[in-house]
Amino acid sequence: MSELRAAGSPYAREFTNLLQTLKSRADCSYEALARRSGVSGSALQRYCSGVGVPNDFDPIARFGKACGAGPLELLELHRLWVLVDAGRRRGAPRAEQASGASSAAGPTPIPAQIPVTADIELAEMSVKLPGTETESAATAVNSPVSPAGLKTGPASSVAPGSEPARVPFRLRLRYLRRWPVLVGSLLVVGAAVAGTVLLTGGRPAGADDSPNRPLLSAKCRFVAMGHQDTCVRELQLRLKQAGLDLDVDGAFGPFTQMRVVVFQLLAGLEPDGVVGDGTKRALYAGRVKAHPWSPERVDRRVREVFTEDADRADGIAKCASNLDPLYSLGNTNGTRNWGVFQLYDGTLRELGGTPRKALDPEWNIQAAHRLWARTHDFRAWPSCDKAYQAGASKSGTSKGPKGKPEPSATP
User: Fold this and answer.
1) For the whole model, what pTM was predicted?
2) What is the rounded distance in angstroms from the CA atom of residue 355 to the CA atom of residue 156?
3) Domain residues for 269?
4) Which of 34, 65, 93 lies at the terminal end of a domain, its last residue?
């Protein structure tokens, strides 16, 4: 049917429902939304009806902002778009494989779980000493068994009067010498496992059931996106104590993951958003304490730095991060945007910065002004700039440089 449904993504319906909800709340036509967002009306209609999904999040972000979506709604849109886009990309190869399988002459052979070389090694390990009837391991495995349980002979026939090929003595000796080492290694490993179980009382080594550190207990071993439980609530409490403001509701959503990423960066960990043992221990260590600026202070500083066009710069900062200096949004290619003006990883490198520097609101605002000074416009933030202009047009006038009013664009 649609591209999203064909991809088999379980999040496609949730994604299109949210788009339709925002469209209904905006209470305007696709043509009007197209003028506000800069995305064609036909494309917006395809996205809302579930017929397609863009390869980049930018059109969806423009649509959401044109509909008046708040920061949390934009985060949810981004989360669902990532999941739907990933499902679509996985679905394409599956569809090709399915069509190829249906046109094939016969069923696809199932690969063997045991490599072919195993049979060779079994044959080499066999020993047939003079005066004995010891069979090779490979022959013993492949020999059919009679109802009485007696071997009736090897599965592969041997020509009458001929003897089976003998394995060279040096190969037999080599494998015989391995057995004591193998048996000794197994005994050592077994003793180590038994000792670990006895010492930890059957719990994994390193587990901590202390009531003061529940995140390190077996109950909270896995804390991830989508979970709703007391473990997530404990995580949120610890993040809040570290100075990262968020709602403590026990639900692990995109905003909680964003705060985890920022905490990991401040703690010197890999900012991947995964709540592993390192992140849990850092949360309890209490060495990270963020002191972010208030939105009012950020707003004031943006206007002080962007004297050339203060209203527009302030509007773009509100659109990009809602004036949250610890805001960080991920991209599908593994990069992230950081801070007040959501500076992209690549842009940070150009400006001589790092993600940690970008979380400093003073550095972020000054860096954004340097970026603006290259062209004396806000083309580095196309989506937010269009959303700002659309809002200014709706109010009747828009502010130009130095606060002078300029004619608004025709809606």
Assistant:
1) 0.54
2) 67
3) 214-285
4) 93
